[in-house]
Amino acid sequence: MVAAVTAGGETREYSLQPTTHPPVSLMGAGGVLLLLFTLAYLESGLRALRRRRAGTAAVVPAAPSGFGAGVAVWLLASVLLRHTPDLWQAVVRGGVGVVAAVCTAVATRRAAVSRWSA
Q1: How confident is the model at residue 93 (pLDDT cuts 50, 70, 90)?
Q2: Looking at 14-18, 82-86, 91-95, which range is the least confident one?
Q3: Which pLDDT score is estimated for 1?
Q4: pLDDT at residue 117, as a whole number
C-alpha cells in the first residue's frame, strides 16, 4: 500500500506497510499478553470447578475471561494478517469467546459433579 503526497508541485510516495514483524508491534504484544492472562484466569476458574471448590456461580467469571480471550485471538489474527482492526469484529469475536468459555465451564462443572457422585 502506497500513499502519494503532493506538496509544492512535487509528488512523493510513502509505503504504508511497516517493515517490522507484526507480533513485535504494540498491538501484537498486547494481544499476546491479553490472551495469556485471560487463559490463565479461565484455567484457574476451571481448576476450582474440577475440584468442586466452587459452586455453580463460579461459571459466571468465565464470561469476561472468554470475552478477553476472543478479543485477544481476533487482535492477534488482525495483527498477523495486517488487517485494520474494526470494533464490530472485536465484539463478535468476544461474544464467541464468551459462549465458548461458559460452555467449557458448564461442561467442566457437570463432569466434576458426575465424577464425585459416582
Answers
A1: very high
A2: 14-18
A3: 64
A4: 64
The three grid cell numbers given for residue 42, joined into one nine-digit string: 479461565
Distance CA 30, CA 19 (A): 19
Coil vs helix vs strand at 86: coil
Q: CA separation (Å) from 103 to 3, 46, 81? A: 46, 11, 29
**Sequence-distant (≥ 6) Cβ neighbours of residue 99 within 8 angstroms:** 66
Phi, psi values for residue 18, rounded to 5° = -70, 150
Whether residue 107 has pLDDT greater than 60:
yes
CB-count burial class (<10 Å; 0-12, 13-18, 19+) for 62: buried
Q: List CB contacts of 62: < 8 A, sequence separation 6 or more.
A: 42, 45, 46, 101, 102, 104, 105
The single residue listed with the C-alpha cell 468442586 is 52
Q: Which helix (H) or strand (E) holds 51?
A: none
